[in-house]
Specification:
The complex is a heterodimer of chains A (about 475) and B (about 475). Chain A is of the alpha/beta class. Chain A has helices at about 5-15, 20-40, 50-60, 105-110, 155-160, 175-185, 215-225, 270-285, 300-315, 335-345, 350-360, 370-390, 415-420, 425-430, 460-475, and strands spanning about 40-45, 70-75, 115-120, 165-170, 185-190, 210-215, 255-260, 290-295, 395-400, 435-440, 445-455. Chain A has 15 helices and eleven strands. Chain A has an eleven-stranded mixed beta sheet with strand order 1-3-2-4-6-5-10-11-9-7-8, sandwiched between helices. The relative contact order of chain A is 0.14. Chain B has about 475 residues and is α+β, with helices and mostly antiparallel strands. Chain B has 15 helices and 16 strands. In chain B, strands 2-6-7-10-1-11-12-13-14 form a nine-stranded mixed beta sheet. In chain B, strands 5-4-15 form a three-stranded antiparallel beta sheet, with no helix packed on it. Chain B has a two-stranded antiparallel sheet with strand order 3-16. Chain B starts with 6 loop residues before the first strand and ends with a helix. The mean pLDDT of chain B is about 90. Classes of the chains: A alpha/beta (about 475), B alpha+beta (about 475). The interface of A and B includes residues 102, 312, 313 and 316 of A. The structure holds zinc ion. Zinc ion binds near residues 28 and 43 of chain B. Chain A: Keywords: ATP-binding, Ligase, Nucleotide-binding, Protein biosynthesis, Transferase. Chain A: It catalyses: L-glutamyl-tRNA(Gln) + L-glutamine + ATP + H2O = L-glutaminyl-tRNA(Gln) + L-glutamate + ADP + phosphate + H(+). Chain A: One of its GO terms (cellular component) is glutamyl-tRNA(Gln) amidotransferase complex. Chain A: GO terms for molecular function: ATP binding; glutaminyl-tRNA synthase (glutamine-hydrolyzing) activity; transferase activity.
Chain lengths: ~475, ~475
């Protein structure tokens, strides 16, 4: 069952090669066996096997079932699945079980998927290594002394280690693409407004987007086809038609223009990452694509701009964790002290750092100098993309400047950590789509990822390009020892 | 030494609860008075992962109010977050409008005591959501979030008001206009209209504005007047003792009629406003605004002018009728049934209002239809019943819903205008009261009333006074 695509699993279940219960048990066994070391799951759904058996019964009765009926999957722990804990890997959400269903989870459920559980992440999606998680600091399946990346580190590791068929993650500044790159899988950050944010616990509302993290391009396209649907419950969801992205997987990319932005190959990118990505570019050239050198002049301001906008929004979004209505509450004698103690004890250092930064940039007297200025720069960065997409169909660049680093290596230096998202952040400021897929391995044996960036709602083209490369490269998607 | 006199400068911020069926960002009921925490959902509870979706009715209502208050309507306005911690504020921010409110630069004309008109500027009207409510009991504070997400419009005036009386006139006018465009029931007891008053004083009208104090959440017209008057006196006292008025928020205590400091400058709030990334800008099409302009009902000022010119009513009567939209509607329906505007108006202002007070009901619940009231007036005008009988007929029609003409017929209440019969009755009364007759003949004019009363009694109230009076005069001269 390992190594099957979703399409193959669906067919096998329909042909009754194995049952949903067997498939689900297979994943539960793997979680049992490997998750002690990988530490990807914050929560495993005890009812999933019962749910799988119910699907099998319905199938036995000959009921018409949705395409993916009985296939298990898992969710990053900030994506709300009704009646399952949603912790954001934060102590402050200890015990919080949402009484309502999120849209992405609902769409997956409607397509027949079963939820295996919730996956660890950096606390409130703030981090690039999964080390800010309060409950479980996930390890990289390729080398457990290394980080899986973040913030969707649990999702990336679970997919890479075969502890789920696929996972949903969320990407605010690269949180799907960077861990996908570090764990050797495929991650897509869809266009802002493509996937409903209703049921996504917010980090930075104008940047966050849910996306699929999968072993293959085909699975990725299949999952986005399910969750990429307009939703009235999210005002920022855009009313464009749902698409079947698998139809883009033709292998034919002839005549496509791919831009190579020089600013994305700047300092900090290791030689082997650079070389590996350059090989991918050569592969596209060989497939008949036209490679165009381009410039995106405002790239150097992206990290600073991002940290102003994202922390401003986060400081506001995280105000609701006050100990009054849900989650962790500290004991104290007065209301003010209760607020103070709850937030002091409930949030980790990185979250506090960002709340303070965000509060500062929004405060009277600094608002114009920071927040307004950042919004203006954001417009310039968007314009870079608009200009680039007048010349090319897609942009190619390294996802992460390095392969997965050792756990603890960058924890004491937040700025160093922030720079690991240097190539992913700009896209979130623009709002387009971006996909990371494996393109080789470093001398340390760790996966290297290449990134394809596209304009608004151009996910289909990215899948087309990615699939063509994947078919040629034929890279292993899982460490040998975990097979 | 001559006592220094000061001029107050007052601006009002009025929060009006909109009478929509559902809340501003979710589909929960907007009904007042439900069991605590029953009209709530994950969205208005501010649970993690939820998103607001704007109720379009709220925009419609605010634009209606803006048009009625002579505002410019902004075709692109945005929502902002106002961040602060409070136990009844679930998200720790209030969604409001800050830099780009939906309506701006309007005005209301109010009438001053000397009869002149004064124009009060409206700075802005913006949309925002209400917070919840804390109930303090037995050492606990219980949070009721039914009210969170109730749509409010905040109507901010220019500091154009110069007395507590002007403030009251402004509020009264504002309430009337909002009722006319049906955007709120403006019920102050239920909190659907709340007022913050910014008050400062200065030595004369050319002096720059003084330091102002903000008096929060005053909940009746009378209390707004009291609070402003008290605040004015307090500030005068501070200045006359050589002190300085400090900028602060004060609370009005309705029991003592005084204001007290709520928070000082040291914990002044920095709300960290920024555009709410969860909500897209409100973009209004010209057609939307034009349709609402078309819809606009006749507003109080226009109606008042028309009532004076079309019906020949005195200004004071017109004021009364237009003060409540339903009064004006009732009046016009009645006049349509019987064209005696002044007569109808007198009956609306007199008997009908008395009944509303007694029954504590609305005008259309009073039991007497405009057509029936019109018929009562018509019966008087035709000389069929006397004013006294008319009151009896009015009450009975209101109680039973019967036609007044039917009641008059059924009970034989038609007025007696037969001169011979009436002369007989007058003779009998004069004969029964010889002493009074003598005094009356000798010029004691005040006995006129006594005799009329006796004649009415003898005729069981049916004597037509217009005919009786000359007969009485003839027989006693
Ligand atoms: Zn609600």
């Amino acid at each position: 069952m390992l190594g099957y695509t979703l399409k193959q699993l669906s067919e096998a279940l329909q042909k009754k090669e194995f049952s949903s219960a067997e498939l689900t048990q297979f994943y539960l066994d793997r979680i049992q066996k490997y998750d002690g070391e990988i530490a990807a799951y914050n929560f495993v759904n005890e009812n999933v096997l019962t749910q799988a058996k119910a699907v099998d019964e319905r199938r036995a009765k000959g009921e018409a079932l949705p395409a993916y009926a009985g296939i298990p999957m898992a969710l990053k722990d900030l994506i709300i699945q009704k009646d399952m804990p949603a912790t954001c890997s934060s102590r402050i959400l200890e015990g919080f079980v949402p009484p309502f269903q999120g849209t992405a989870a609902q769409l997956l459920e409607d397509a027949g998927f079963l939820c295996l559980g919730k996956l660890s992440m950096d606390e409130f999606a703030m981090g690039s290594s999964n080390e800010t998680a309060y409950y479980k600091k996930t390890k990289n399946p390729w080398d457990t002394t290394r980080v899986p990346g973040g913030s969707s580190g649990g999702s990336a590791a679970a997919v890479a280690a075969g502890l789920t068929t696929f996972a949903l993650g969320s990407d605010t500044g690269g949180s799907i693409r960077q861990p996908a790159s570090l764990c050797g899988i495929t991650g897509m950050k869809p266009t802002y407004g493509r996937v409903s944010r209703f049921g996504l616990i917010a980090f930075a509302s104008s940047l966050d987007q849910i996306g699929p993290m999968t072993a293959t391009i085909q699975d990725n396209a299949a999952v986005l086809s399910v969750i990429g649907k307009y939703d009235k419950k999210d005002s920022t969801s855009l009313d464009v038609a749902q698409e079947d992205y698998t139809k883009y997987l033709t292998g034919d990319v002839k005549g496509m223009k791919i831009g190579v932005p020089r600013e994305y190959f700047a300092e900090g990118i290791t030689a082997e990452v650079r070389e590996c990505v350059n090989n991918a570019i050569k592969a596209y050239e060989a497939m008949g694509c036209e490679i165009v050198d381009i410039s995106m002049p405002h790239t150097e301001y992206a990290v600073a701009t991002y940290y102003i906008i994202a922390t401003a929004e986060a400081s506001s979004n995280l105000g609701r964790y006050d100990g009054i209505r849900f989650g962790y509450r500290a004991e104290a004698d007065s209301l003010k002290d209760m607020f103070y103690e709850t937030r002091s004890q409930g949030f980790g250092d990185e979250v506090k750092r960002r709340i303070m930064l965000g509060t500062y940039v929004l405060s009277a007297g600094y608002y114009d100098a920071y927040y307004i200025k950042a919004q203006k720069v954001r417009t310039l960065i968007k314009q870079d993309f608009v200009d680039a997409f007048e010349k090319v169909d897609a942009i190619i660049c390294p996802t992460s400047p390095t392969t997965a680093f050792k756990a603890g290596e960058k924890m004491s230096d937040p700025l160093q950590m922030y720079l690991s998202d240097i190539n992913t952040i700009s896209l979130n400021l623009y709002g387009g789509c971006g996909l990371s897929m494996p393109c080789g391995f470093g001398s340390d044996g760790m996966p290297i990822g290449v990134q394809l960036l596209g304009k608004y709602f151009d996910e289909g083209r990215l899948y087309n390009l990615a699939y063509a490369f994947e078919q040629q490269a034929k890279l292993p998607v899982m460490p040998e020892k975990l097979k | 030494m001559k006592k220094m006199s000061y001029e107050p400068v007052i601006g009002l911020e009025v929060h009006v609860q909109m009478a929509t069926d559902s809340k501003i960002f979710c589909t929960c009921s907007n009904k007042f008075g439900s069991e605590p925490n029953t009209n709530v959902c994950p969205v208005c509870l501010g649970m993690p992962g939820v998103l607001p979706v704007l109720n379009e009715k709220v925009v419609e209502y605010t634009v209606k109010a803006g048009l009625a208050l002579n505002c410019q309507i902004r075709t692109k306005s945005v929502f902002a977050r106002k961040n602060y911690f409070y136990p009844d504020l679930p998200k720790a921010y209030q969604i409001s409008q800050y830099e780009l409110p939906i309506c701006e630069h309007g005005y209301i004309d109010i009438e001053l005591e000397d009869g002149t008109q004064k124009r009060i500027g409206i700075t802005r009207i913006h949309i925002e959501e209400d917070a919840g409510k804390l109930n303090h009991e037995d050492g606990y504070s219980l949070v009721d979030l039914n009210r969170t997400g109730t749509p409010l419009m905040e109507i901010v005036s220019e500091p154009d008001l110069r007395s507590a009386e002007e403030a009251k006139a402004y509020l009264t006018k504002l309430k009337t206009i909002l009722e006319y465009v049906e955007v709120s029931d403006c019920n102050m007891e239920e909190g659907s209209m709340r007022c913050d008053a910014n008050v400062s004083i200065r030595p004369d009208s050319n002096a720059p504005f003084g330091t102002r104090a903000e008096i929060k959440n005053v909940n009746s017209f009378r209390n707004v007047e009291r609070a402003i008057k008290h605040e004015q006196k307090r500030q005068e006292k501070v200045l006359s003792e050589g002190g300085k008025v400090v900028q602060e928020t004060r609370l009005f205590n309705a029991d003592t009629g005084t204001t007290a400091s709520m928070r000082g400058k040291e914990d002044a709030h920095d709300y960290r406003y920024f555009p709410d990334p969860d909500l897209v800008p409100i973009v209004l099409e010209d057609k939307f605004i034009n349709d609402l302009k078309e819809w606009m009902p006749e507003l109080p000022d226009a109606k008042r002018a028309r009532f004076i010119s079309e019906y020949g009513l005195p200004g004071i009567d017109a004021d009364f009728l237009v003060s409540v939209k339903a009064y004006a509607e009732y009046f016009e329906q009645a006049v349509k049934a019987h064209n005696n505007p002044k007569g109808v108006c007198n009956w609306v202002m007199g008997e009908l209002m008395r009944r509303l007070n007694d029954k504590q009901c609305t005008i259309f619940e009073a039991g007497i239809t405009p057509e029936h009231l019109a018929e009562v007036v018509k019966l008087i005008d035709e000389g069929k019943i006397s004013g006294n009988i008319a009151k009896q007929v009015f009450d009975e029609s209101a109680e039973t819903g019967k036609k007044p003409s039917a009641i008059v017929e059924e009970k034989g209440l038609v007025q007696n205008s037969n001169e011979d019969e009436l002369e007989n009755i007058v003779r009998q009364v004069l004969e029964a009261n010889p002493a009074e007759t003598e005094r009356f003949k000798n010029g004691e004019a005040k006995l006129q009333g006594f005799f009329m009363g006796q004649i009415m009694k003898a005729s069981k109230g049916k004597a037509n006074p217009g005919i009786v009076a000359p007969i009485l005069k003839k027989l006693t001269s």
